[in-house]
Write a structure and sequence with these properties.
Layout: E1 4-7, H1 14-25, E2 30-34, E3 48-50, H2 56-65, E4 70-73, H3 79-82, H4 86-103, E5 111-113, E6 116-117, H5 141-160, E7 163-165, E8 168-169, E9 171-173, H6 186-196, E10 199-202, E11 210-214, H7 215-227, E12 244-246, H8 248-256, E13 263-266, H9 270-276, H10 285-291, H11 299-310, H12 313-322, E14 326-327, E15 336-337
Parallel strand pairs: 1-2, 1-4, 2-3, 4-5, 5-7, 6-8, 9-11, 10-13
Antiparallel strand pairs: 11-12, 14-15
């Protein structure tokens, strides 16, 4: 029987990954953990552990306390927030990973998941269809920690046989959590502002193309990678995956399909410089080849989903009347709209 630990469970990924894991493996078999206790009954249906991953002794004791079969190490400080405290960001993002990798040498039959990011790519990486194997010269401490972490994961796999798996997540869009300090988080904040106030000030330029992914697809990708046969995986740093690509003006246009009075101003700040160093889209061929990844949600349906979940009854009715019909399509393009 699987016994699963999730660190950083109160973050953007964890709040949706934990319920998905509990639905799949049983609520008592998935232990959620974070540095604070959850509020509003979050994770009340299963075990929860208060855990500070920057305390190496405590983290190691927890890892050795159960016969874990899967560990999802999600605790991290994101790109924009990380620039305010570079050394603290490095400590959280890197030292905790090293403790987990080293302790995993004493765990039997345990698969590890650790999220990487498109932040590993620097200005030297191709802007269009950035491939799996390109040089990394990240420009943020978050990106530096992810690039280094990828190499440590590969090292522990090759040296000690630790079955660690990873995805280079693009910007993640979710209706269950608030923006978490990432450069791509404008694509989350804009929905909250649109339904609450009908206006938004964007900290990126209108034409800034960035890779994105709707959270249900991100969760599905994570579970599919963890289910893949070990001998089919040819990447032990971190996998690129196919996702969405759009700029703020495109997203605004899609939102105005439902909220035509929505107003947006553009006031680029330091996050624009970070975004300028990242690819505009990602080549996920290797993930499609190794574990058959296919994109599910395209931009129009993602926008409809976000507005429906965040909006009041009136907005829900508008979305239900105007949303496009979803047609399933084969291949990496996923679903498209009519």
């Amino acid at each position: 029987m699987d016994k699963i630990l999730v660190t950083g469970a109160l973050g953007q990924i964890g709040t949706e990954l934990v319920p998905a894991l509990r639905a799949k493996y049983g609520r008592e078999n998935v232990v959620a953990s974070d540095i604070q206790h959850p509020s509003d009954g979050l994770f009340a249906d299963g075990p929860y552990l208060k855990l500070d991953v920057t305390n190496p002794d405590l983290l190691q004791r927890v890892l050795l306390s159960e016969p874990w079969t899967q560990v999802y190490h999600l605790a991290a400080v994101l790109s924009a927030r990380g620039e305010n405290d570079p050394l603290g960001t490095w400590d959280i993002n890197m030292q905790s990973l090293l403790v987990i990798l080293e302790t995993a040498r004493h765990l039997k039959n345990c698969r590890l998941f650790w999220p990487s990011s498109i932040a590993v790519f620097g200005n030297n990486a191709p802007k269009a269809f950035c491939s799996q194997h390109v040089p990394h010269q990240p420009t943020t401490v978050y990106g530096i920690s992810k690039a280094a972490g990828e190499l440590w994961c590969q090292y522990y796999f090759e040296r000690y046989g630790i079955d660690v798996r990873s995805i280079r997540y693009p910007g993640l869009i979710s209706h269950t959590g608030l923006p978490g300090g990432g450069t791509t988080d404008y694509a989350v904040a804009i929905f909250h502002e649109a339904v609450k106030f009908g206006k938004y000030t964007c900290y990126l330029e209108a034409n800034t193309l960035l890779p994105m992914l709707y959270m249900p697809d991100a969760i599905r990708a994570t579970l599919e990678l963890m289910d893949a046969a070990c001998d089919k995986l040819n990447v032990r740093t971190s996998y690129n995956i196919w996702g969405l690509t759009f700029h703020p003006a495109e997203l605004v246009q899609q939102i105005r399909h439902y909220l035509p009075e929505f107003k947006v101003n553009y006031a680029p700040d330091f996050r624009q410089t970070i975004a300028n160093n990242w690819p505009s889209n990602i080549n996920g061929h290797q993930s499609s080849t190794d574990w058959h990844w296919k994109l599910g949600f395209q931009l129009p349906d993602m926008v409809a989903e976000m507005l429906w979940h965040l909006g009041d009854d009136q907005i829900k009715r508008i979305v239900e009347e105007k949303r496009p019909h979803v047609v399933e399509a084969a291949g990496s393009e996923g679903a498209y709209m009519l």
